[in-house]
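batch job 7 of whatever, protein = DUF4878 domain-containing protein
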Amino acid sequence: MKIFATGLVAVLLSACGGPETPQEVSEAFWQAVIEGDAGDVSDYSTLVDGAAFDHFGRDWKDAVVIPGRVVIEDSSARIDIRLQGVDNTAGDIAAATYLVQKDGEWLVDYYRTGDALEQKPIWSGLASQLEQLGQDLQARWARQSDELALELDRMGKELQKQAEATTERWAELAEEYGQELSRELERLSKSLTEALRQNPSASPEDRRKLNESVNRLEASQQGLEDPQLAELLNSTRVAVETQLNFEQLDTRFDRYKADWREQVAEIRQGLARFVEDLKAPAS
């Protein structure tokens, strides 16, 4: 195992043009955390806006990060770490750095890594948020989720049936719809990013919802470069699930919500048109 030597890491990274492997990105990320460099923390992670860097609620001045086992699976990775001197304490903290690959680059999954640092289940934050919702809102959430699942399942079956019945027409329409969907996802992602950056005083929970929604939308958009049936359905599902997520945001985001609802409605309508176009006879 190797202790992070921040000075040596900086020299090596500048010499090779920047971190590339999960191990290098993890080192650069933790170096930025220790130095309190919000810009680099954002550059090396999925944190959309450096202003949201919260230092994970800890004092890193005398911290040392010791990497351990590395597991890389396709577009995700995990690096076990031990933390010494965090919060000026003598005890070690066992945690993990989680990374994802985005546009061919490795990035630290900021919030998942923060959850691991807190040594609590990843979904405990979501569970506590749901417990705070009123019963009426919870019931509406469940109903909307069920309706969404049924709607997309129905459309998915129709698409599968049409895809099996056509070849060139499917490819042509899929490419056209994929480009349209990609533009809509990009527009929605940019709007969410703007809302995140224009509201630095929003609660950590709301900032997390927006940040993770942006990351999911961008990942879905990337999957549409060569759209297949699964990618088209998944990207549409992500957009609609994003709407369910932003409906829970604080009232400070109300002026954005109407636009977001309209954008998601256009995405759903686009999928419906795509299904109908596939059904129509070729001219």
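notes: The first strand starts at residue 64 and ends at 73.
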